[in-house]
Amino acid sequence: AALPERRRPGGGRPRYEVVRELGAEEVRWFYREDRKTWKPFIGYDSLRIELAYRALGPAGGPAEPREGEAAAVEPVCVRSGLYEVDVASAESYPVYWNQTEKIPVMRGQWFIDGTWQPLEEEESNLIEQEHLNRFKGQQLQESFDMEVSKPVDGKEAIHSLKLSRNHVDWHSVDEVYLYSDATTSKIARTVTQKLGFSKASSSGTRLHRGYVEEATLEDKPPQTSHIVFVVHGIGQKMDQGRIIKNTAMMRDTARKIEEKYFSNLATHVEFLPVEWRSKLTLDGDTVDSITPDKVRGLRDMLNSSAMDIMYYTSPLYRDELVKGLQQELNRLYTLFCSRNPEFEEKGGKVSIVSHSLGCVITYDIMTGWNPVRLYEQLLQKEEEELEDRWMSYEEQRLLEELYVTKQRLKEIEERLHELKASTVSKPPVLKFKVENFFCMGSPLAVFLALRGIRPGNSGSQDHILPRTICNRLLNIFHPTDPVAYRLEPLILKHYSNISPVQIHWYNTANPLPYEHMKPSFLNPTKEPTSVTDGESVSTVPSPTTSPVMVRRHYGESITNIGKASILGAASIGKGLGGMLFSRFGRSSTTTPQTLEPGKDGAEGDDKKATTVGTPPLSHSSSGFLEPIVELEHRIDFELREGLVESRYWSAVTSHTAYWSSLDIALFLLTFMYKHDQEDTGKSNLDAI
């Protein structure tokens, strides 16, 4: 049983050592989540926990913590500041969210060979005590630079210790084995010994004193330069801890991506769950009391999930939902800054990742949208309609009087508001500027469309979310997610016929940066029934005259695929392609270009006008041809479909499949590390 080489930071230790009490750097602390295996804390955390532990009892001694002194030792901040360890109770708990299950922590002194898992603390303490009593002051034959070559076979134990279900044999100072005293192992041991095998090799487990790697304060996590608030959607009432688990999945996948692609950067991105639903009372139990008993399970599931959408559209409860999320976001940010005072000083950034209905509530908080505004617009419209129709003199006089009174009321309200503003400065809705707002599986576009937002003529994100509020809006969705909708066609109508940007697979070699991708059409040609002189010569839609087009979708049904094939064949039969080329050929020498589905990734943030064939043309009212407006930055990003997954099954699962996706983790970090990467790798970008 050879000892693995021990890694000793700061040079090797003397070859021959004297047995002494374990140093704080040799002890390793562990934690266990979800009843899985024990995981070691990093050196920085373990060393600080051990020092706090020793502050409870006699210096250097593995004494039990004394009750009276428990309050004197402060909790130790661990795992990048997300958790704290209470050494006295040997428990760990999260700092930023509530968790019913405490996470046990354990002090490791003796470890199992190979796995380096710690022995249970009670047994470990007994073995350590016995080891010091018997061997303290004796020289060790163990070298940390070479493997122990002497076989233990045939050696008799020089010392033994009986435990409850096991016993430990010392064959030498540094050759210690643990044997199970269970009946089955006794039989096995007898059989193997009769066959000529030695006792040690037959059923013993080699133990090591002190962890394989010394704990150092240099082994610490990188500083957080960017925090991401992860906001849940509906259904949180049904499974209260779900957002915490989802955020943990996202954090773990992001860590893997950071190690693989961003290890050269000295900072890291931290993900914090925002659980806004459980604190809200809303209607109490009124909805439950009016729910019929038949198929109660299904009804309860709908009440706990879909009911949140109804609450949000209710004028009575909408404000409570908005306030709940707003307060939780501000609470988390304030708490994080109080524990990391250098975050704001060093220009730390904040992004938000929202899922489902959470996108709509987050959007409304950032923009300050309120249904009252919609009502005022409706009243204004009614007034304009009244002015247009015929009315009697008396009615006209009363309307004028009402108009003057309203104007006077408006002036008084404004003066009062100015007076209040001068005495009390109103705090901002959010205590931070949002750098990136990532929507995942978001119905936001539907809500905006139903609020009356229509496509404009400018390719700016400001049309739906001003850049002064949020620097960048990105809409991520799975092609078969039934809850997700596109945002780009709400800014420029013709983007309904331009496919969303394909998100790179995380293991793609040298992917093309998103900003360098060119738009590709979902349906590059349309089939007109007849072309008259008065109609536009352009078959490419424009912001002002976008026709309804046959669109290809990734989640389309078989009948739609068949119909698209027939239409495609018909358009080729009519020679429409040639007609299109001849028309475009008049105004440019560029070779016309249609959809290239084989290209890796489809499009990206391209501020310059990209050409599909020639620069896209539209027919203006004056009769001149004008170039089509393009988006400053692309907003819609689509996950690539799996090659074997069923579309109908993925329609059920895709809405919740974002959390553990490595593709999404890489996508998020690519945008959040953008500025850091530009500083460290401009030469790479130039090469691309």
Automatic annotation (TrEMBL):
Pfam family membership, one: DDHD
Protein's organism: Rynchops niger
Keyword Coiled coil: yes
Coiled coil (UniProt feature): 376-422
GO molecular function terms noted in the UniProt entry: metal ion binding; phospholipase activity
InterPro entries attached to this UniProt entry: DDHD_dom, PA-PLA1
GO terms for cellular component: cytoplasm
PROSITE patterns: DDHD
Regions of compositional bias (Polar residues) in chain numbering: 525-535, 611-620
Top-level taxon of the source organism: Eukaryota
Biased composition (Low complexity): 536-547
PANTHER family registered for this protein in UniProt: PA-PL1 PHOSPHOLIPASE FAMILY, PHOSPHOLIPASE DDHD1
Biased composition (Basic and acidic residues): 597-609
Name of this protein: DDHD1 Phospholipase
